[in-house]
Write a structure and sequence with these properties.
heterodimer; A: about 290 residues; mainly alpha; ABC transporter involved in vitamin B12 uptake, BtuC; two-stranded antiparallel sheet; 11 helices; about 5% strand; B: about 400 residues; alpha/beta; Rossmann fold; about 45% helix
Chain lengths: ~290, ~400
């Protein structure tokens, strides 16, 4: 029971990490940059979902959609203000700029949304169902499917569709892509919008199981980046797999050895795994095509 | 140079008179000022801002009451508030500024133990009484200074842990309780206290589990405690993480008694934890619900009058902050009146001389002695729980 309940909890959290990490993946494969305010986008999704559903009183699906759109808009803003000005000059300052952007957003939400943690209305999380002797909310079972579905959809989109392939072309050679008639700027901006929308989706999925407050996303963002690197940031399947493995191992370590060791063991394992597989689980060494 | 200075021609007597005049001029505003300044260093912004607001309200209601009766030593009490942002360094600077520039006669402290601990050495060395009204860290008052200027009207972790263990045994017949504690210095300090309280009764514990403020799922930790045979849980965490523990227990379907420190009282616990919130029995020093004493009713009335945003009892939160601050202000005013001066050492001595004070939390008899600077003891705690957003007392 100890192990099964840990696995169920772990896989649910793991698919959340995976969703956020997919956000890192998307921008990386298109522009070789990532948005370090992903954790704040998770928070933004949950907070806006709460505001639209509870304070404005929109029906849940509508509140969800509105919050997702707002998160995508945040992604566009991040790309335009925090990434493009630096990346276009070949500077790596977007690293710090996106971290700073996340901190600014967290604090802005603290002052506007309020200091007290609030509770998201329960969605499929009122009566637990019993599976293998452990209580599970239906929502916890749905989250992994959403995560896997999104990962699969994203992989298919990038590999099989014309527009997806054009996105991947951007990272290979932006100039050549531009000459081929691909709108490079729009492609990169779109990848950031998708990335923050994924984080926002993760935030709204976890919110009914958690509480909504301004600093809820920070640790998620950090773990998700570890997951993205672990999975091989260039591979959607690898990232999702790493998320599930990370979540499950985290819960298992806590269950078997106690929570005092969880963070030490997990982050040490990440370092160890990267030493053995420098490109992550399914990542490939970048080949510079000249 | 000197020969050209007119003062050279002044007689010694005249110089002396002049010096005295100037000195008394400097002293004049102090003796003639209309108010006695008292300082507060607390979190007025950030996550704990609500605690600072409660303390200000408690202090203000008490000061208004005292001032309406003519004040202390014929002067009105004035409260000067500084925000420490829950940051020990900022708190220490604010305390220094209040003492050195504003010349406050005494200081009040806020919610955060680390901030209070940073102010303690300064209060002792500058000989200004420092009254704690919230932070429960044991070493704040038990600081080992030869001349201790730190007093407190609040819970003390070590005594709280003692009370939590006694309650779990008496109420639930706990034989092998487990601990689920937040992973920070507060959790650490209570782990020590709980271990000690269990050891003195030779009761074994099922396990000690820690969790993080932002943990979504505490099921793995709780499953370990359940597997180890825990028959009751001690919970130490603030409101949001406490709610995650309750939600995780719900999901596991594990109905186990929970005896908690006062964390859940700090926010919307019922909203966050759901209906099972009522199962958590937590410690308080005071609650405005239930049958109130005459004093309680009067204070509640004054609060509603002064702060129109207080409409129901659910708005009088956190009650402990208000009540502790109210009694702390009254006791401090008594000490100043007894000392007859604003001199720190004399006020400190006067704290020991307070015989009795009929307060909001209790009737204080000799609240402070040289050995004990904590006015609230083990028998003064009450256990409460949340019912529909209101904190209700439980019978022990």
């Amino acid at each position: 029971m100890l192990v099964t309940s840990a696995l169920v909890s772990g896989i649910c959290l793991g698919s959340m990490y995976g969703l956020i990490a997919l956000g890192f993946h998307v921008t990386y494969v298109v522009s070789s940059t990532v948005n370090f305010s992903q954790g704040s986008a998770v928070m933004l999704g949950a907070v806006l979902g709460y505001v639209f559903a509870v304070r404005v009183g929109l029906p849940l699906p509508l509140a969800f959609a509105a919050a997702l759109l707002a998160c995508a808009a945040f992604g566009l803003l991040v790309e335009r203000v925090l990434v493009r000005p630096f990346a276009s000059r070949g500077s790596n300052a977007w690293l710090m700029a996106t971290v700073a952007g996340g901190i600014v957003l967290d604090n802005a939400v603290l002052f506007t949304f309020g200091k007290e943690p609030r509770s998201f209305p329960p969605v499929l999380s009122t009566t637990p169902i019993q599976i293998f002797g452990t209580g599970v909310y239906p929502l916890q079972l749905i989250i992994p499917f959403v995560g896997l579905g999104v990962a699969l959809g994203l992989a298919l989109f990038l590999r099989r569709t014309r527009y997806g392939k054009s996105l991947l072309a951007v990272v290979q050679n932006a100039d050549a892509a531009r000459l081929m008639g691909i709108d490079v700027k729009a492609a990169i901006a779109a990848s950031f919008a998708v990335s923050t929308a994924l984080a926002g989706l993760a935030g709204m999925l976890i919110a009914p199981l958690f509480s909504v407050h301004s600093d809820m996303g920070t640790l998620f963002g950090l773990k998700a980046f570890a997951v993205a690197i672990l999975g091989g940031i260039g591979s959607a399947a690898g990232v999702m797999m790493a998320g599930l493995i990370y979540g499950a191992s985290e819960a298992l370590i806590t269950a078997l050895f106690g929570s005092s060791y969880t963070h030490i063991a997990m982050f040490a394992a990440v370092i160890g795994a990267l030493a053995l597989m420098p490109h992550g689980l399914l990542g490939r060494a970048a080949i510079k095509k000249v | 140079m000197r020969s050209r200075f007119p003062a050279r021609r002044l007689t010694r007597r005249a110089v002396l008179a002049g010096v005295t005049a100037i000195a008394s001029l400097g002293a004049f505003p102090a003796s003639a000022q209309e108010s006695i300044k008292l300082g507060l260093v607390a979190a007025m912004s950030g996550q704990s801002a609500k605690s600072g607001e409660a303390i200000v309200r408690g202090l203000t209601i008490a000061a208004d009451e005292i001032n309406a009766k003519g004040g202390v030593l014929g002067k009105k009490i004035e409260i000067i508030v500084r925000d420490d942002e829950s940051n020990p360094a900022k708190g220490a600077i604010a305390a220094r500024e209040l003492v050195q520039r504003e010349k406050v006669a005494a200081l009040f402290g806020g919610l955060d133990t680390p901030v209070s601990l940073a102010i303690v050495p300064f209060a002792n060395s500058s000989k200004v009484p420092f009254m704690g009204v919230w932070a429960a860290g044991t070493p704040i008052t038990r600081n080992g200074a030869p001349e201790n200027y730190v007093f407190r009207v609040s819970a003390v972790d070590e005594i709280v842990d003692e009370a939590l263990v006694a309650y779990a045994i008496k109420k639930y017949g706990a034989k092998k309780p487990g601990m689920i504690l937040i992973n920070n210095p507060w959790g650490e300090s209570n782990e020590k206290g709980l271990r000690k309280a269990l050891e003195t009764r030779s009761i074994p514990f099922a396990g000690i589990e820690k969790f993080e403020t932002n943990d979504v799922d505490v099921v793995p930790q709780l499953t370990r405690l359940k597997a180890a045979g825990a028959d009751a849980l001690f919970l130490v965490a603030n409101v949001a993480p406490s709610a995650q523990v309750v939600k995780s227990l719900d999901r596991m379907g594990w109905d186990v008694p929970i005896v908690s420190h006062w964390g859940p009282a700090g926010g919307r616990f019922t909203e966050l934890a759901g209906p099972s919130a009522a199962k958590v029995h937590f410690i308080q020093t005071y609650t405005f619900t239930g049958k109130l004493s005459a004093k309680g009713a009067a204070v509640l009335d004054a609060l509603k009058k002064k702060y129109p945003e207080i409409k129901s009892l659910a708005d009088v939160t956190p009650a402990v902050g208000i009540a502790n601050a109210y009694d702390a202000m009254q006791l401090t005013a008594l000490a100043i009146a007894k000392a007859g001066t604003l001199d720190g050492p004399k006020i400190r001595q006067a704290f020991y001389e307070i015989d009795s004070y009929d307060g909001l939390i209790k009737s204080y008899k000799k609240p402070f002695t040289v050995e004990n600077h904590d006015a609230i003891g083990a028998s003064d705690y009450i256990f409460t729980h949340f019912v529909d957003g209101e904190i209700l007392p439980l019978t022990q």
